[in-house]
Automatic annotation (TrEMBL):
PROSITE patterns: ADH_ZINC
Family stated for the protein in its record: Belongs to the zinc-containing alcohol dehydrogenase family.
Official protein name in the record: Alcohol dehydrogenase catalytic domain-containing protein
Domain Enoyl reductase (ER), residue spans: 7-400
InterPro entries in UniProt: ADH-like_C, ADH-like_N, ADH_Zn_CS, ER, GroES-like_sf, NAD(P)-bd_dom_sf
Compositionally biased residues, Basic and acidic residues: 274-286
Domain of life: Bacteria
Low complexity bias spans: 259-273, 411-424
Compositionally biased region (Gly residues): 425-436
Database matches in SMART domains: PKS_ER
Region (Disordered) location: 259-300, 405-436
Length: 436
C-alpha cells in the first residue's frame, strides 16, 4: 500500500509498504478514505519534536471504513464508517475512565509514565504507524473508533479526528465562559478551528494573532478581530482592544515552532532577545536540516508563551495546546505567577470530545469542512507537505484523498475549501449532495 514514511529530519517520502495486520484481539484494520497533514507532523520533519524512528508511517488524522476487527471488538463490523481519533487509550484504566484518554496508563508499551500514545509519532508515543496510508491498524479499536453517520461526510469527519477536538479542548483548558474576551495565538488549522469552538463555548469577543496575511484573512472571515504581529505589537494591540485590561482567556495554538516577528514594532522589541531566542532554538531543534525555506524550525520557541502571559488579564487563564516537547524548558513563569494566572496545557483527550463534535456536525451546528483548503492527490503529498510547511497562500489545512474515490471533492460544497469554519447561524453551508 501507499504511505507517507518518515526517513529522517527533512526527509519524508511516499513509499510502498506492507499492509497492516490484526495483532491483538482489540485491534481493527481500517481502510483510510481521507487523511490530513497536521502542524504536529511538521515538528517531526523540522526536527523540533525528537525521537522518530526511520520507517515510521506518519499521520494521525483519518476517517475510513472498518476492514477487519479482532475477536474482542464487539461494537464495530467491517463496512462501518469511522473517525480515528489521533490519540489512543485503553478505555479501562482510571485515567481513561475519567476522560483523560491522552494519559492512559496502559496503551503505551513504555509503561504508565511513558506519555501520550498517538498514531505516526515518536517511539516514546508508543511507536504506532500512522494514518497517512491506505490502511492502518488501530489498537483498542473497541474504545477508540467513533462511528460516523452518513450525514457527516469525509471532509467534515477528517477534521474531527484531531483539529476540531484539539481546538475544543484548548478552549476548555482556557476556561472560556459566556461573554469572555478571548485571544487565540496562531491562525493555523488549530487556531482557525478554535475560533469556531470558542464561539460555541460562549466567547463574547475573539482576537486572533498570526503573522501570515492569508491566515489572518481566514480568521477575519470567521469574524474574529485579527492582529498581524508583523505590523503591530500584539500585546499592545490586545491591550488597546480591551480597554487596557487584556483578554480574559488565551488559547496558545502555536507551540515550539513559534516565530519572532520579522518586521514592525514587535520586531524592534524582540531584537534584544536574539541571542536568547537562538539558544532556545538550538536546544529545541539541534538536528534541524532545513532545505532553503522548507523545514525551517521556528526561531523563537517561547515567543507565543511570552505573548500569552503578557496579553492575558490579571487572574486570567491560558490554555496551551500548541505542542512543547520536554526539551523546551523556557516559560515566563514568574510573570504568570505575579498575575495570579491559571495555566492549563496538554495533549487533547480526543476520544472524550470527538463523539460530541460528531453530534454537533450531524445536527448542523458546526461545519468544519471549509477549513480543508487543499485536497491534493496522494501522489503529490510530499509537495503538499512542503507547501503547508512554508505556509503558502491557501495551504491552511491539507486533506488527503487516500480512498481515491472522490468521496470528498473539495469544491463540492458552497463553502468547501473556502477556509472559513462555519458555526450555527451561518446557514446553507452544506450543499445538497455533499455526504448524502
Ligand atoms: N495538544 C494537542 O493535542 C495538539 C493536537 C494537534 C495539534 N497540536 C499542535 O497545535 C499547534 C498548531 O497546529 P497547526 O496544525 O495549526 O499548525 P501550523 O503550523 O499550521 O500553525 C501554527 C500557526 O502559528 C503561527 N505562528 C508562528 N509563530 C507565532 C507567534 N509567535 N504568535 C502567533 N502565531 C504564530 C504560524 O504562522 C501558523 O499559522 C502545533 O504545535 C501542533 O503540534 C496539538
Ligand atoms: Zn495533529
Ligand atoms: Zn487507559
Amino acid at each position: 500500500m501507499k504511505a507517507v514514511v518518515w526517513h529522517a529530519i527533512g526527509d519524508i517520502r511516499l513509499d510502498d509498504v506492507p499492509e497492516p495486520k490484526i495483532q491483538d484481539r482489540y485491534d481493527a484494520v481500517v481502510r483510510i478514505t481521507a487523511s490530513a497533514i497536521c502542524g504536529t507532523d511538521l515538528h517531526f520533519v523540522r526536527g523540533t519534536m525528537p525521537g522518530m524512528a526511520p520507517g515510521r508511517i506518519l499521520g494521525h488524522e483519518a476517517v475510513g471504513v472498518v476492514e477487519e476487527v479482532g475477536s474482542g471488538v464487539r461494537d464495530f463490523r467491517p463496512g462501518d464508517r469511522v473517525v480515528v481519533p489521533s490519540t489512543v487509550g485503553c478505555g479501562s484504566c482510571s485515567y481513561c475512565r475519567a476522560g483523560y484518554y491522552a494519559q492512559c496508563d496502559r496503551a503505551n508499551p513504555g509503561g504508565p509514565q511513558a506519555g501520550t500514545v498517538f498514531f505516526g509519532g515518536p517511539e516514546a508515543a508508543g511507536g504506532l504507524d500512522g494514518l497517512q496510508a491506505q490502511y492502518a491498524r488501530v489498537p483498542y479499536a473497541h474504545v477508540g473508533l467513533v462511528p460516523l453517520p452518513d450525514t457527516v461526510d469525509d471532509a467534515q469527519g477528517v477534521l474531527l479526528s484531531d483539529i476540531y477536538p484539539t481546538a475544543w479542548f484548548g478552549a476548555r483548558l482556557a476556561e472560556i465562559g459566556t461573554g469572555d474576551t478571548v485571544a487565540i495565538l496562531g491562525g493555523g488549522p488549530v487556531g482557525q478551528a478554535a475560533v469556531a469552538c470558542a464561539r460555541l463555548q460562549g466567547a463574547g469577543r475573539i482576537i486572533l494573532v498570526d503573522g501570515v496575511p492569508g491566515r489572518l484573512d481566514l480568521a477575519a472571515r470567521q469574524h474574529a478581530e485579527v492582529v498581524d504581529f508583523n505590523a503591530e505589537d500584539p500585546v499592545e494591540a490586545i491591550r488597546e482592544l480591551t480597554g487596557g485590561i487584556g483578554v480574559d482567556r488565551v488559547v496558545d495554538a502555536v507551540g515550539v515552532d513559534a516565530q519572532r516577528p520579522a518586521r514592525g514594532p514587535a520586531a524592534e522589541q524582540a531584537a534584544g532577545r536574539a541571542e536568547q531566542d537562538e539558544r532556545e532554538r538550538a536546544r529545541a531543534a539541534p538536528d534541524a536540516r532545513p532545505s532553503g525555506d522548507t523545514w525551517v524550525p521556528g526561531d523563537a520557541p517561547s515567543q507565543a508563551a511570552r505573548w500569552a502571559v503578557r496579553a492575558v488579564a490579571k487572574a486570567g487563564t491560558i490554555g496551551t495546546v500548541g505542542v512543547y516537547p520536554p526539551r523546551v524548558e523556557t516559560y515566563p513563569f514568574g510573570e504568570a505567577f505575579m498575575k495570579n494566572l491559571t495555566l492549563k496545557s496538554g495533549n487533547c483527550n480526543h476520544r472524550a470530545i470527538v463523539p460530541h463534535l460528531v453530534s454537533l456536525v450531524a445536527a448542523g451546528a458546526l461545519d468544519p469542512s471549509p477549513l480543508a483548503t487543499r485536497w491534493p492527490a496522494v501522489e503529490d503529498v510530499i509537495e503538499a507537505y512542503a507547501s503547508f510547511d512554508r505556509r503558502e497562500q491557501g495551504w491552511t489545512k491539507v486533506a488527503l484523498d487516500f480512498g481515491g474515490e472522490g468521496r470528498m471533492p473539495p469544491a463540492s460544497g458552497e463553502h468547501a475549501g473556502s477556509g472559513a469554519a462555519t458555526t450555527a447561524g451561518a446557514g446553507g453551508t452544506r450543499a445538497a449532495g455533499q455526504g448524502g
